[in-house]
Amino acid sequence: MALADQYCHHHRAQNRTSTQTITPKPGYIYVYTYRNLYDSLAAGHRSKLPWLLIDDSVLSPTNTIRRPWDSHSHILCKIGMTTKSKVSTRLLEWENSCKHPVLNLTPDRVATLCSRNSATGLSRLLSKLFLTPSKPTITTKNLQTYHNGGFWVPTGELPAIEHAIHRHLWQRYGQGLIYCHGCDPSGKKRHREWFRVPVCDLPWLLTTLDRFCQGLIR
Rounded to two decimals, what is the model's pTM? Predict the structure, then answer.
């Protein structure tokens, strides 16, 4: 499969633009989620998004098994790239396309979510086994490339880095597919760039994106 075939039409347009210029554009790697998914997890509620369906049948695509999203310990994250000057501009485009509010997973929001998540359920019970419960320590100061809402890549390697990140996360979390009725009311459009991530892994995720953008992971 050609590299261009592995991206949605938004990214293919970005890639075509970069190949038509003499100097490839720098840009950002960003991570976001659905706003109502984040809010429900932050409030300690089991998130139910009836318009969002999960496909657990990756190994048997002809026997599609769809189920509504319903989780209190995981979050859906989308990793993308943009050559725009602001990540917020790109997220607004996704929001208009998907017809659902989205939210940038900034270090502050990740720390807040992890802190509240660790105070409920199994995490709270496990924390009692330790003298001092662990606390999220992820901040912008811990992330060398993070600013303006994303991880800055000053070179033209942005598409390659995004693709390497996707491969890395697919190996860790698998490649479950989601169907969003916001993007396609028929429910036939599948998204491949979302990842079902345990909330407790979010600090690791941000750190990993930072390391990729520093060139420490390939």
Answer: 0.76
